[in-house]
Write a structure and sequence with these properties.
The complex is a heterodimer of chains A (113) and B (116). In chain A, strands 2, 4, 5, 9, 10 and 11 form a six-stranded mixed beta sheet that branches. Chain A is built from no helices and eleven strands. With 113 residues, chain A is mostly beta strands. With 116 residues, chain B is mostly beta strands. In chain B, strands 2, 4, 5, 6, 9, 10 and 11 form a seven-stranded mixed beta sheet that branches. A four-stranded antiparallel beta sheet of chain B has the order 1-3-8-7, with no helix packed on it. Classes of the chains: A mainly beta (113), B mainly beta (116). The A-B interface holds A 32, 34, 36, 41-46, 49, 89, 93-101, 103-106 and B 2, 4, 6, 31, 33, 40-43, 45, 48, 50, 55-56, 90, 94, 97-110.
Chain lengths: 113, 116
Amino acid sequence: GENVEQHPSTLSVQEGDSAVIKCTYSDSASNYFPWYKQELGKGPQLIIDIRSNVGEKKDQRIAVTLNKTAKHFSLHITETQPEDSAVYFCAAGTVQGAQKLVFGQGTRLTINP
Amino acid sequence: DTEVTQTPKHLVMGMTNKKSLKCEQHMGHRAMYWYKQKAKKPPELMFVYSYEKLSINESVPSRFSPECPNSSLLNLHLHALQPEDSALYLCASSPGGGTESNQPQHFGDGTRLSIL
């Protein structure tokens, strides 16, 4: 089955700097890669996703890149703000067929003012 | 605000109690999910309903019993739970299933369950 590894487990950056979180996946059949942000006391919130027919996707300060050959994808947050502090999860799944998402172990991101 | 609504937000129950968790979505989604999340861990899939039929059961103990009364509602019936079942229970929904696109999944804020 699919296995997703996520690094780092914790990340601390200065406000205004960039943050990068990386994930690798094992199953070449996976073609859908979402990123979720989870704040304390809340459920995971989808912040961006990418499908395997696209190499990069951007939404304001957030971008995701995908390297299908190497089976890895990354989340990039630029101009970080204190409200970006949260736990971030990557996941891998398929657009059709089996409805399972396999999650990485999470990254606790802290933005220092 | 999340478009997937879960009630109650918090639940404390004894090991002999019977209780139910409820989830509701009005996005017209046809797939609904139950996940369990322990502290500092990612969500773990428990059940998937697709078009109101149970399509995935991740070998969950029978003390957890899911129910999908209609396409907007999902319940999780709890009976004779153990202390290790204390966790955040998350509901999610997605557009479709089967041959339709089953992504993205949208989560509710969960029910924090404590077993005494």
